[in-house]
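Deliverable D4.2, example record:
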Amino acid sequence: MKRIVKISLILFIMICITGNVHAMTTCGVDINILSTEVIPNDKLIVEIKLSNVQTDSGIDMFQATLSYDDTLTLEKMEGLNNWKTPKSGSSYNPANGVLILDKSGSAESDEEILKLTFKVEENASQNVRIALSDARVSDGDCLTRLDDKEISVNVKNETPATPTQTPEQTPNTTPEQTPNQTPNTKPEQTPNQTPNTKPNQTPGTNSSTSGNKDTDTPVKKIPSVISEDPLPKAGDMNAILLIAIGILIIISGIFYIRFRNINK
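Output generated by the structure prediction step:
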């Protein structure tokens, strides 16, 4: 009888222990960056993500130690997907980098839990490092240790391009060289024009040089006091007189004939 009671107690204890046993939670942690290359004074954004999550009851707590280079300055932390943002002095210790996040609810699949914003300092080296160590997650019953994670980001030290200064074009002050033109010192040869030494003989005027031969010495022309308008020729005057006489004869004849006819 006592043996049966002992066996029953042992079975009952085994059933109770078996009912509380569940699958162990496993997952990993990743550090993702939005850009693999940054420049000094630039922003570097990092996201912490739970990956390869395998759990029955879900994950509701994350703990890790954050470390990064001195040439990075942590400016902002922001919880994602209902994970609470760590607060400096309570859930985040800047002195040792320990941070703790908890979630309203539980994570049952891969998801981003935290976003970090860094500023790259002016004196940043060629590569900057960000790491998570001593990472753990909890499903409410036990803690699961995660592998350490570290990334390196390339810093591109770009020297600002100096604008190329084009030399100013100074106007050419040197006068253009024109071919030397030697002035012609020889007087122009004009055809010899022998002035007419004969004075114009105006009717009714006597020239003091009348009858002299032409010489090379020019003779000054004596202005004439008589009008230079042409005088009618003698032949023209005779013709005019004859015409006038003929007209008078004709008129006289007409008057004579009329006078005779009146006296009849």
